[in-house]
Amino acid sequence: MPCPSSSPLPAAVPALRSWVTRGLLLCAAIFAQHAAAQAPVQAAPLVDQSLVEPYDGEWITDQPAGATPVEGDLVLSNYFSEDGYCPTDNCWGPQLLPDGLIYRSYMAGPREPKFQLNHLYEASSEQTFWDVILGGRRGIWRYGTYDELRPQGWQLDIEGAAFVRLNLDEDRDVDASDFRFGVPLTYGWGQWQYKFGYYHVSSHLGDELMVRHPSRDRINYVRDAIIFGASYNPNLNWRLYGETAYAFFTAGGARPWEFQFGVEYSKFGPTGPRGTPFFATNGHLREENDFGGDYTLQLGWLWRGDSGSQFRTGFNFQTGHSNQYQFFRESEEQYGFAIWYDY
What we know:
Helix content: 10-25%
Number of helices: 2
Structural class: mainly beta
Low-confidence stretches: 1-10, 37-85
CATH architecture of the domain at 97-102 and 112-342: Beta Barrel
Largest sheet: 12 strands, antiparallel, barrel
CATH topology of the domain at 97-102 and 112-342: Outer membrane phospholipase (ompla), Chain C
Number of strands: 13
Strand content: over 45%
Mean pLDDT: 83
CATH superfamily of the domain at 97-102 and 112-342: Phospholipase A1
């Protein structure tokens, strides 16, 4: 019997092999999916870790009940502190070279560290002067809130200024210049601010004035004083203040005690380009003038930035004893227009 040319078994082998291959692939796919579901997933970091510096302290991982951070307004200091969670700008912490001041300089104070150009007419001498202040005040260290505009807490400041009088009727000669340096420690909480510190002031007669008046003697006016001040805000727009200083070293006719007090008004907060009106008045009493002194009134327009620093321009009136200590025994009546930059 002749052998057949083909058989049913060899013809079934390819079909069987195909079904086995499909089954193995299906099993491999199911296994891979199951393994992937069980394996831990490591998400890619959101921040380049090479750019992140280590931070000493305890990160807050449990957000307090009721805290709802708004995307885009998230502030890192809101969620990190040594004591736990704290709301915006109310977190207390140590800060080196902080922005903003707790106890700000008096706007109408004629001996405050700031920038000033006051073009004035002095009525008793019928002369025209520039009274220029080149100075400033900055924080060195703070333990308190992170708010720049109205910080709370403790702060150590440094201040300095040169008070220069230029005589416009005498080719802008320097008639006198006084120099001040101080280190105030300030504290603020709620509506009250306090200042305690040391300052030095010395007065110098201008070379050009001595050439014009050879018989005039220079006064070696010097004060090294301890100062205490208090400031109160009945509301955000008004400020009342008073301070006293006792000089433990004096020379050139200076005496130990002096007192200063005043009132200020301006709209609180950053003003934007439109600005806001301001009013300021200051009284300064000195023992060397038998507790007389000088009175200052200012009216004008003010622009304030986010840190509380402000630029002002307006009218300046001053009467009483001269604010230049070379002439502290002389009386003056000044009418001027000025620009100021306050810290």
